[in-house]
Amino acid sequence: MAQGTVGTLLASTAYVWYGNVKATLKTSRTAGVVTAFILLSDVKDEIDFEFVGTDLNDVQSNYYFQGITNYQNEVNISVTDTFGTYHTYEVDWTPDTLTWSVDGTPHRTLNRNTTWNATSNQYHYPQTPARIQLSLWPAGLSSNGLGTVQWAGGLVDWNSPDVKNAGYFYAMVNEVNVQCYNPPSGAKISGSTSYIYDNVSGTNDTVETTNDATILKSQLGTGTNMSAAYPSQVATGTASGSTPASTNEIPTIPGLNGAGTGSNGLRGGNGGDSGSAASSVGGPAPSGSAPTGFHGFAQNPGSSMGSLPKGEKILQGSLFAVLVAVVGTLAM
C-alpha cells in the first residue's frame, strides 16, 4: 500500500454460502494501517477479522447484518505478533453458528438465535452468499472521520521504516483454504451458476441458486438487461451516404483498453455479436459437505420455508477445497 493510494484489495470471484474459510497471513503494522480478512455479501452481510497496526497482539472479530453498525458486535481475540508471525485465521460459518478461530483454536462463537431483532423482525446474522476479501487500507487518513482515525490508532506515518525500506506498507498472505457447505435445507435451487435475490429484503430465504448468466454482454448491459450490446455498426451522420463508424469510436469507460463491445469483448471490429461466454464468474462456489444437524431458517421463527418442489435437488455434498498460494504481497 503506497502513499497516495486507497489501499489494496484481493477478492474472490466466486461466492460462499456457508462454509469454512482459512487464511494464513502476517499483517502490516503502524498507526492508521489496517489489515483485513473478511467475507462480504452483496447486501453487506459481513464477517471480519481486522488487524489494527498499532496492536499486534490482538485481532478484532466482528460481524454485520446488511451493513447495520452495531459497536457491540466486535470482540478482541488475543494473538502473538501478527506482523512477525504467520497465524491461521479461520471462519466457520453455518446457518446456525459462526465461529472465529486462530491456529485451530476456537475463540468466539455466535449463535444465530441470539441475534433476533424484535424491531425489524429479523435475525441480524450474516446469512447471504459472500465473497472472500483480503485487504490493506489506510484508515488513518486525515480525510477519514475522526472516529475511524482514532480506531485505527492515529494518522498513517508515511515515513515509517516499512515504507522507507520497501516503498509501501505490506501484509504477507501464505495461503487461503475454502470448504463450502451444502446450502441450507429449504434453499431455492433451480441451477448451479449464480445466486440471485427474489425479494428486496435480501435475507437468506430470498436467495435462489440459478443458471442465470453473470457476465454483461457489453458495457451497455445492466443487471436487468445483461444482453444489451452495441450495434456492429453505428452511423456517424443522418445524411444519405453517411459512413458507418467502427465500434471503437463508441465511448466506453476511460482506461479500459481492450475491454470492449459485443460478446467477444474486443474493441475495434465490426463483427457480429453472436456467440456466448465460455464461462461465468460471480456464481456460487461448488458446495461441499456440511456437518449434520444444519437446517434452514426463516426470518419469522414461527414460520417454515416449506419443502422443495418435486424434482428440485439441493447441490450435492462433494468436498470443495481451494488452496491458494499468494505469490506476491498485499502491496500496491
**Terminal Cα span:** 5 Å
Strand content: 25-35%
The oligomeric state of the chains shown is: single chain
Secondary structure class reads mainly beta
**Whole-angstrom Rg:** 23 Å
Shape designation: globular
How do the strands line up in the largest sheet? 1-12-3-4-5-6
What does the average pLDDT come to? 78
Helix percent reads under 10%
Uncertain stretches: 233-247, 249-283, 285-332
Largest sheet: 6 strands, antiparallel
Tell how many strands the DSSP assignment holds: 19
Counted by DSSP, the helix tally is 2
> Topology as H/E string?
EEEEEEEEEEEEHHEEEEEEE
How does this model look, in words?
- The chain is mainly β.
- The protein is built from 2 helices and 19 strands.
- The strands form 5 sheets. Strands 1-12-3-4-5-6 form a 6-stranded antiparallel beta sheet, with no helix packed on it. Strands 9-8-7-2-13-19 form a 6-stranded antiparallel beta sheet, with no helix packed on it. Strands 14-16-15 form a 3-stranded mixed beta sheet, with no helix packed on it.
- It is globular, with a radius of gyration of 23 Å.
